[in-house]
TrEMBL record:
D-isomer specific 2-hydroxyacid dehydrogenase NAD-binding domain: residues covered: 108-278
UniProt keyword Oxidoreductase present: yes
Gene3D superfamilies: NAD(P)-binding Rossmann-like Domain
Superkingdom of the organism of origin: Bacteria
Keywords for the protein's UniProt record, in alphabetical order: NAD, Oxidoreductase
Source organism of the structure: Reinekea blandensis MED297
Name of the molecule in the record: 2-hydroxyacid dehydrogenase
One Gene Ontology term of the molecular function aspect: NAD binding
InterPro entries: D-isomer_DH_NAD-bd (IPR006140), NAD(P)-bd_dom_sf (IPR036291)
Length: 312
């Protein structure tokens, strides 16, 4: 029976949940925690299931050929395996997409209906209504039109929001208004009332959003970052908020996580901090997808593989 370790910087109780969920679906494999394998067994492991593993954890398995990530983001794995022959499959899960779309709808409505202003007014006992605008008069710019971005666009469009998407390359099959490339990014920034960032972290997206980009926006635009923290320059974001270029930011991802207690985001009146909860992985649905990919890979069939040059 083949051993498949579940490797990650996650609590041991969560590792055991993954082991049980995977064993229920593919009992022909022996899933286990890394410390349950003797060294000679580790040397023969070819496949692994990973959840944000450290390079040190992965180095214990010198014969790895393929890993299935149970997270959508794979930038750390790309850095770890760059230049190697190891293949990485990231999690593409419809349930994850649905959860992200739910969060996008929640926070877009929160900002559109001025709930952030009412929350601030309550602190000073201010009774003041703000003008109502239909969602049809609000444009949500979405950066990233992959699985997550497309699901969010669909959910927001159903609620009446106008969608203007942006991606690295053209998306000719997208049903939503969209653009691409540097010039296209400027267009999206200029037209959006709310900007929803869902971009993965790559060499091309690191610090993509700086003060130069915020100066291209409508004055007072609101920002939601559910992608990756380092795609947004943190000090420039604060400058944009304090200067009025932006009016509010909902942040679920950060350059350093957990966000340090001394970080200025925690106490900024125009920032809502969330602890990376916009789209948590469902163990049940992710285990189904992992089981299917594992059987395919073991049978020599093709599975989706991360492009290390693109970073996703």
């Amino acid at each position: 029976m083949k051993h498949i370790p579940v490797i990650g910087q996650i609590p041991s109780a969560e590792v055991q949940q993954w082991i049980q969920a995977l064993t229920d679906r593919v009992p022909e494999y022996q899933f286990c925690a890394p410390d349950e394998l003797p060294e000679y067994e580790k040397a023969s492991v070819r496949f692994a299931v990973v959840a944000n593993p450290s390079p040190q954890q992965l180095a214990e398995f010198p014969s790895l050929e393929w890993v299935q990530s149970v997270w959508a983001g794979v930038e750390k794995l790309v850095d770890t395996f760059a230049g190697s022959a190891i293949e990485v499959t990231r999690l593409i899960d419809p349930r994850l997409s649905a959860t992200m779309a739910e969060s996008a709808l929640l926070w877009c409505l929160y900002l559109h209906r001025d709930m952030h202003l009412y929350a601030a007014q309550q602190q000073s006992a201010i009774w003041q209504a703000h003008p109502y605008r239909p969602t049809e008069h609000c444009t949500v710019g979405i950066l990233g039109l992959g699985e997550l971005g497309s699901a969010c666009a669909k959910r927001l469009s159903e609620q009446g929001f106008q969608i203007f998407g942006w991606s690295r390359t053209a998306k000719p099959d997208s049903e939503f208004r969209h653009t691409f490339g540097p010039a296209g990014l400027s267009d999206v920034l200029a037209e959006s009332d709310i900007l929803l960032n869902l971009l993965p972290l790559t060499s091309a997206t690191r610090d993509l959003l700086t003060l130069a980009e915020w100066r291209q926006c409508q004055s007072g635009m609101k920002v939601i970052n559910f992608g990756r923290g380092p795609t947004v320059n943190e000090s420039d974001l604060i400058t944009a908020l304090e200067s009025g270029l932006l009016s509010y930011a909902v942040l679920d991802v950060f350059k350093q996580e957990p966000l340090p207690a001394e970080h200025p985001f925690w106490r900024h009146e125009k920032i809502q901090v969330l602890p990376h909860i916009s789209a948590p992985t469902s163990i049940d649905s992710a285990a189904e997808i992992t089981a299917r990919n594992l059987r395919k890979k073991d049978a020599g069939a093709a599975v989706p593989i991360v492009n290390f040059e693109q970073g996703y």
